[in-house]
Amino acid sequence: MSEDLKKRTAETAALYFKDVEGEVPYRIWHSFDPELAKEFSLFITGSIYSREKLPHPTRQMVAVASLAALGAVEELSLHLQAALNVGVSPKELAEVIFQVGVYTGVPAMNRALVTLREVLKLKGLWPPDRG
Amino acid sequence: MSEDLKKRTAETAALYFKDVEGEVPYRIWHSFDPELAKEFSLFITGSIYSREKLPHPTRQMVAVASLAALGAVEELSLHLQAALNVGVSPKELAEVIFQVGVYTGVPAMNRALVTLREVLKLKGLWPPDRG
Amino acid sequence: MSEDLKKRTAETAALYFKDVEGEVPYRIWHSFDPELAKEFSLFITGSIYSREKLPHPTRQMVAVASLAALGAVEELSLHLQAALNVGVSPKELAEVIFQVGVYTGVPAMNRALVTLREVLKLKGLWPPDRG
Amino acid sequence: MSEDLKKRTAETAALYFKDVEGEVPYRIWHSFDPELAKEFSLFITGSIYSREKLPHPTRQMVAVASLAALGAVEELSLHLQAALNVGVSPKELAEVIFQVGVYTGVPAMNRALVTLREVLKLKGLWPPDRG
Amino acid sequence: MSEDLKKRTAETAALYFKDVEGEVPYRIWHSFDPELAKEFSLFITGSIYSREKLPHPTRQMVAVASLAALGAVEELSLHLQAALNVGVSPKELAEVIFQVGVYTGVPAMNRALVTLREVLKLKGLWPPDRG
Amino acid sequence: MSEDLKKRTAETAALYFKDVEGEVPYRIWHSFDPELAKEFSLFITGSIYSREKLPHPTRQMVAVASLAALGAVEELSLHLQAALNVGVSPKELAEVIFQVGVYTGVPAMNRALVTLREVLKLKGLWPPDRG
Q1: Domain extent at residue F15
Q2: Is the pLDDT of residue F131 over 60?
Q3: D96 and D61 in one domain?
Q4: How many helices (H) and strands (E) does chain B have?
Q5: pTM here?
Q6: CB contact under 8 A, F103 and B106
Q7: Looking at this predicted complex, what is its ipTM?
Q8: pLDDT digits (tens, 9 = 90+) for D20-74
Q9: What is the pLDDT of residues C21-39, one digit of tens each?
Q10: Do D105 and E103 touch (CB under 8 A)?
């Protein structure tokens, strides 16, 4: 079962964070404490993200909504990339951020839109189709 | 077109907030400034929520993720009820909140779970099927 | 000079917080540490609020804007009362909060409006003239 | 009336944000969604800022107090510039930030002072007259 | 090893949270998802709190400082009780909160002091010796 | 007594902030208002930090826990350096931050770990002994 958890963790991590730009949190955890880094990773990616209770695109929109609200731009960038990796469109991501702006106010919304623009530029998807 | 906006606003408000418990924000706005209350409502419910760019269940999970991150328990309660109204299941709502806990930490996650429990009790859906 | 600071502190405290409902922070500080309570009070009310660099009504609107943004409803209630004590009108207070809503999002704005409603009820000023 | 709103929006935007340095939020909104950008702008600048319920210098001090509390340095920079544009003095802006420090703590106060220093340097107003 | 983790988790939970008033987070997690509740508990109490890298009194002061900064009053109450359980004195707890006030501002400091007062009353330790 | 306060303030400031990299807050306060800067410094460093109610290493861990929770990276950097100056080890600082991650979520924890890595590099203490 523990082997199964490790396998699911690796698969989900590959699905989400393949080719992302930016420092993947695992690396900074590992540089301070390799054992704890492994536990964090198995817990978050394995025990949470891999549960088949929400489809991956929904999980990523949930992550984007929450990270935009928190102003956590580094992790927001990682999850915007993960969202594109699992098939969420740039337009849907912008729409999530515009909606979140109602709850967080304009400055947090702007910061998230700027982060999305950076991610789309990185992926060669800028300017977005605005139709 | 303005008539169309008003119609969509009313329809979306009815869909989301029918029979909710708690003070709907429109009422407090209206008690201070009826004109501005109308503009807020047309802007948020009409110009944002009614756009057909995200399905309503996704919009509500986005709201829940963001409001849980902000610790905004009154609005969280309203949107948990709205989420149930558009077909999101109690289990999916708990899963959104558990995932958001990774980004917000345990205290904000606990507060959101307590709010969800109150909403489920109110709706006669407590205890949840935990299978 | 220290006597002068004490005098200004007492005068400004009387001007702002006369007859307010709610626990004045000085009392909780004093119950833990009377000496530090005195220093906090001289510093905040004396060295900051008593400086003649901003008119008192402006100071109170600054306090309201900042406390509404922080969601600090207890202190917000005290400073809404202080604002009324120095001549800010209920309409101006509502307007400050509506504007702050742009930066903080709707939930923080709603919480501040609810706090203002409570203060106005307490003062016999509810419902407000909405003309 | 809608024409009137557009006119007031344009006038207020010109008054506040003439010659500001930094990305005006309208541009990032527009790059994602031109129609929604127009609605945001009419709502915020037209329906909120243009209401003649608070004098423009007070509005800008309210913005500064709230944005300093939120740590929203990009928008804080824009509104510090807008405040100078409508006649608020550098000393008054520093005083607003020092007062806000009581409610937000020292780190948020420092961040806001550093932002003010950058704005004053940009405008050739640094070092401030500290008399 | 997993048995060892379970044993340490149970011991540390007993040490910290024996006889606390308030809802222990495990119960709300468990009501939604017993399996995930167990993993959360093993991760937080077992893998973090039980590591012998910080003495228990230090761990609890770290928890108090962080939870006071976040305004998380429910968890703050639990950890103030846990701090008393492992030998931190009421005076030291007040001092931690006064210091945190420098970083968080007065409203968050006041909220934490009020929470500490409630805990001390609950434990029959109020009023504190202020010598 | 006032002389005594000045002396203690100077001694504690020297102990904590000797040779730190980054802008010490006193300088930015002083550039806006020399008189207020002195009062802030006497209040924070003199009246709070110099009280002999908590050992200096504990004070610095409290500061780190609170500043990590607030995401105040500039002040966090200063207090991580101060913590090393009074004998807290890199491992203990990492452990404080990992624990705080439980309450603040992963993004704030990551930001604090990145700040700690920068401080340790600055001091020639990177990579840490992870034994």
Answers
A1: 1-53
A2: no
A3: yes
A4: 7, 0
A5: 0.96
A6: yes
A7: 0.94
A8: 988 889 999 999 999 999 999 998 998 889 888 999 999 999 999 999 999 999 9
A9: 888 899 999 999 999 999 9
A10: yes
CB contact A94 to D (< 8 Å): yes
Q: At what angle do helices A2-17 and A73-85 cross, to 10 degrees?
A: 90
- Please name which of F103, E77, E27, A60 lies closest in space to residue B108, comparing C-alpha atoms: F103
Residues 6+ apart with CB under 8 A from C53: D91, D92, D95
Closest CA to A66 of E66, B64, F104: B64
Q: Do E99 and F67 touch (CB under 8 A)?
A: no
* d(C-alpha B56, C-alpha D70), whole Å: 30
Residues D43 and D78 in one domain: no
Do E64 and E21 belong to one domain? no
Query: Of A33, A34, A70, which has the smallest distance from its Cβ to F94's Cβ?
Result: A33
Neighbouring residues of A107: CB distance < 8 A, sequence distance ≥ 6: C103, D67, D70, D72, D74, D75
Measured from the Cβ of residue E90, the count of other Cβ atoms closer than 10 Å reads 22
Mean pLDDT of chain E: 93
User: Among the residues of D18-105, which ranges form H helices?
Assistant: 25-32, 34-41, 56-70, 73-85, 90-104
- Quote the pLDDT of residue F129: 76
Number of separate domains in chain D: 2
Last residue of one domain, picked from the residues F53, F77, F96: F53
- The CA-atom distances, in angstroms, between B105 and each of B101, B112, E95, E101 are 5, 11, 25, 21
Token pair for F72: 């105040």
User: B77-130 pLDDT, tens per residue?
Assistant: 999 999 999 999 999 999 999 999 999 999 999 999 999 999 999 999 999 875
**Per-10-residue mean pLDDT, chain A, length 131:** 84 92 91 93 89 94 98 97 97 97 97 98 89 52
pLDDT, position B130: 59
Asked if F98 contacts F110 with a C-beta cutoff of 8 angstroms, the reply is: no
Q: Which residues of chain B make contact with E36, given a CB cutoff of 8 A? A: 98
What are the tokens at D7?
Answer: 């006119």
Map tokens 């904000």 to a residue: B108
* 3 state DSSP class of C18: coil
The answer to whether the Cα torsion of E81, D103, C45, C123 is positive or negative is: negative
